[in-house]
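Hi R.,

As promised, here are both runs. First protein below:
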Amino acid sequence: METLEQIRDRLAAQFPAASLTLVVNPSPAAQSSLLIAAADAAAVARFLRDDAALQLDQCSNVTGVDWPGSVPAANAGSERTAFGYMEVVYHLYSIARGHGPVVLRLRTGNRTDDVTLPSLTPVWRSCEFQEREVFDLFGVVFSGHPDLRRILMWDEFVGFPMRRDYTEPDDYEWEPTPHGTVLEKAQRHSSPAP
């Protein structure tokens, strides 16, 4: 299989106006990734799937990452982003060629009102439930998703529990025989106010 740098260079030749950034991972796993602008994601994804040498025909994993404000921007040294953003990470493999993973990242504009990314479910059907999970737990909206609705939390649930700034309400848990911290919460809510 080609290196990630070679794949990036071929993508740059195929899509000269596309924003493609190599994100180096310094951890022992050294699993670097390609950060792709949302506007270019669908075309790049189709190329990765359909290219004869790559044939990345399987998306095995989709996950979200919350980068709250004032965190270092990727590969930017001391540059910081004030409002933070959400990332969605895709792990791609080729069943036909027996290679992978190739890791793609898509980034939202911020964490509040610019949280829409294109769905890659039309390219890899296996993204459907996993993008729903990222929507449900992180609040990323996937345009073009065939069935974007909560998958783990109930419809009336407020908030996104995997965001780093999520604060758990203290009154929604109920157990028939509460114990530990749940018991303490239950006692606070059942005790009459002084």
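And here is the second one, sequence first, then its structure tokens:
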Amino acid sequence: MSPRTTKTTLDANADIDAGLLRSIANGLLTMIANQETDTAIQYQQFNNQICGLQERILQYEETFECAPEGYTLNDSRIPHFCIPCGNGLLRPAKWIKLNNDSTVSGYADTDGPSSAPHIIDLYAAPDDQYNEDANTTPVDSLPPWFRFLMVGPTTDFTLHHNALVDHDNWGLMRKVHRYRDLDTEYADICVELEQLQVRLNTISQS
């Protein structure tokens, strides 16, 4: 029984007896108890919702404070790796992971748990030099000793590789390995071409 119903009943029954009055009082007490129960349930539901939202906020605030699984801190390993963040702006990749297909995945420090990694081809960033007129100067050719390390015997290349690891520049390391792979491929094609030329000469002379 609501307070309004109770007031109406009392106003309409000035000579109300004790039994009816007791019934009205019990109805009010029941209504109050039910409202208290409903209020307690709603309070707990709202409190659980607030706690859940707080946990989500904390999760976003702490996102990528530690490296995601398989990723490492981009501590100048790929200094040119920047990720679009809207309105034509870019942010440097904070966490990076080397993939098996010569690409690299990365996250910016503003990414969240639901963000997809940004993937780029791994390459060495150009290091252009400029003259007094702000024009790029010609690139120096590779020193012979440096090229020898890249395409020479495995032991020499291993020393070169270890130096690149110490330098910790993934793009430069990828470029040097790619150069060696292309040189090996070029040598194999030259051998195959010579073999085909020998067969061609044999056929021509027969």
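A quick note on the second one: The CA atoms of residues 98 and 104 lie 5 Å apart. Let me know what you think.

Best,
J.
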